[in-house]
Design brief:
alpha+beta, 4-stranded mixed β-sheet, 3 helices
Length: 89
C-alpha cells in the first residue's frame, strides 16, 4: 500500500487557524525551519511523546514554537505525557 504525501507548508502559509492532531507527526512540522515564516496564525495542537525530539514532550513543543516566534498557552497534559497546546502569532 502506498500513501500520497503533501507538503503541509503549502497550505499553512494560507491558513489562519490550524487544528493539528497527527499522532506524533507534529514533530516534523514543529522542527521545520519554515515554521518561523508563518504569520497571523493560531495553532491548536495535540502533542505526543512519539517522535518527540526530547522529553517532556510539552516542553519540546513549547520551546520549538517559541523559537519560531509563537506565543503559547492554554495547554494541558495527561499522565502519558501527551497533551494539548495553543500557539499563536
Amino acid at each position: 500500500m502506498s500513501v500520497t504525501t503533501i507538503d503541509i507548508f503549502d497550505y499553512l502559509f494560507e491558513a489562519s487557524f490550524v487544528k493539528m492532531d497527527i499522532e506524533g507527526g507534529e514533530w516534523a512540522i514543529l522542527t521545520d525551519p519554515r515554521l518561523k515564516n508563518l504569520r497571523d496564525i493560531v495553532i491548536v495542537m495535540e502533542y505526543h511523546r512519539v517522535n518527540a525530539p526530547y522529553l517532556p514532550a510539552r516542553e519540546a513543543a513549547t520551546e520549538l514554537l517559541t523559537a519560531a516566534g509563537f506565543s503559547t498557552g492554554y495547554g494541558s497534559s495527561n499522565y502519558w505525557g501527551h497533551g494539548t497546546l495553543w500557539a499563536w502569532k
